[in-house]
Design a protein that fits this description.
This protein is α/β, with parallel strands linked by helices. Helix content is about 45%, strand content about 10%. One of its GO terms (molecular function) is palmitoyl-(protein) hydrolase activity.
Length: about 400
């Protein structure tokens, strides 16, 4: 009997309450906000010898459902059902989790926060607007040094802190033998969703001017939504911009708002859209609605658009915007041939639907914007300053050789 009690005691002593790790992970990965975390405290114990990343994710899903955090539960389930992502995360985090658990739960919330920061990118990586670029430094040619440093702007839901953007920015700098920096427009990936687009541009301008290396002019590279920011920099930032290169930038707007893939802010964003994409509150406080453009509601777009209608000089002519845009030395517009995110994909090269139609697509030089030269697109075209490049594949699907072909020549 004494032996049996001893076995039971030993078994029980191996169980630890590790809910703190789960809460730390959920908060740090931006799947649940601090306020929600403070309102729901549940305990969960596990035998520390059997804890794994897969189990941690499964238990996180259970807690998220019990606390009513549906967006977090849905996101984690999607991640859990992607074997490659889980395998990659397990390999990277196995040792850290093991060390944390063997520490007998002394700092599990902090350990969970560390796991969450790593998981944030791995979860975001499932989104088609987040860059998965891996630089092949051995392929760098560095044929010529660029005269200008490079400012890079990421896409929707991405972050300068994510590995893909870090690799991409570093790679451009190495290829062009110059200073290269990813410029953030807010605090983490949520800002690209939960910040009005004009405010994102204003913040970009402020942050650019803080970088001493950019004082004498820059080349700007923008990815996806960041392509619009890159172009707006030439119009609105009062900074010398040499070349503007955009990969999948929705310059003429989109007919559908991209899905919010992960994070508590998706609930906020989706609830806000119920007010209507042209609602003044939505336009001023959320990113993608700022470049939504319905050709069947063009007059409402002109009246309510908080960013794009003004940036394209469709609402009224802003001479400063036109002057800045026309001062670009070279505008490089890269379209992804199989793009399923930017609707229509021709927007990536200033094409769009004919006003009043959702079927008739116009090339860049057939739109009213071009014909009337409201912004200066026609002027740049007649001066031979517009370059059209293509990458075969879906949104932001590119590798080293494609960047060497479509981007690097215009940086050096």
């Amino acid at each position: 009997m004494k032996f049996l009690l001893l076995v039971i005691f030993v078994a029980l002593s191996q169980k630890i309450e590790y809910s703190g790790m789960i809460y730390g992970m959920l908060e740090s990965s931006q799947l649940v906000d601090k306020v929600s975390i403070s309102r729901c405290h549940l305990e969960m114990s596990r035998d520390f010898t059997r804890i794994s990343l897969e189990g941690l994710i499964d238990d996180s899903i259970i807690l998220a459902k019990q606390c009513g955090w549906n967006s977090a539960a849905k996101t984690l389930l999607k991640f859990r059902n992607n074997p490659k992502s889980v395998e990659k995360a397990s390999a990277e985090l196995y040792g850290f989790i093991l060390a944390s658990i063997n520490n007998k739960g002394q700092a599990l919330k902090n350990d969970g926060a560390t796991i969450g920061k790593i998981m944030e990118y791995m979860i975001a990586e499932l989104s088609p607007t987040v860059v998965k670029f891996k630089a092949d430094m051995a392929s760098i040619k560095s044929l010529k040094q660029s005269k200008y440093p490079i400012a890079v702007f990421h896409g929707l839901g991405d972050c300068c802190c994510f590995p893909g953007m870090i690799e991409f920015t570093r790679y451009l700098g190495k290829e062009a033998s110059t200073y290269s920096k990813c410029v953030e427009i807010g605090d983490g990936s949520a800002a690209s969703w939960l910040m009005g687009f004009q405010k994102q541009v204003n913040t970009a301008c402020t942050n650019l001017k803080k970088v001493s290396e950019f004082e004498n002019g820059i080349n700007v590279v923008g990815l996806s939504q960041g392509g619009l920011i890159a172009r707006a920099v030439s119009e609105m930032c009062n900074i010398t911009v040499h070349n503007v290169i955009t990969l999948g930038g929705p310059h003429m707007g989109v007919m559908s708002i991209p899905n919010c893939e992960s994070g508590f802010f998706c609930d906020i964003f989706n609830d806000a859209l119920d007010l209507g994409v042209y609602d003044s509150f939505v336009q001023e406080n959320f990113g993608p609605p700022g470049y939504y453009k319905d050709p069947l509601e063009y007059n409402e777009y002109l009246k309510q658009s908080n960013f794009l209608a003004a940036a394209n000089n469709e609402k009224s002519i802003n001479a400063d915007y036109a002057t800045g845009f026309k001062s670009i030395n070279q505008l490089v517009l890269i379209e992804f041939t199989e793009d399923t995110i930017v609707d229509p994909k021709s927007s990536e090269q200033f094409g769009y639907f004919k006003i009043g139609s959702k079927k008739d697509l116009l090339l860049y030089n057939q739109t009213e914007d071009y014909i009337n030269d409201w912004l200066g697109l026609k002027t740049l075209d007649e001066q031979g300053k517009i370059v059209f490049e293509y990458i075969v594949g879906n949104h932001l699907q590119f590798n080293n050789s494609e960047i060497q072909r479509t981007v690097i020549p215009y940086l050096i």
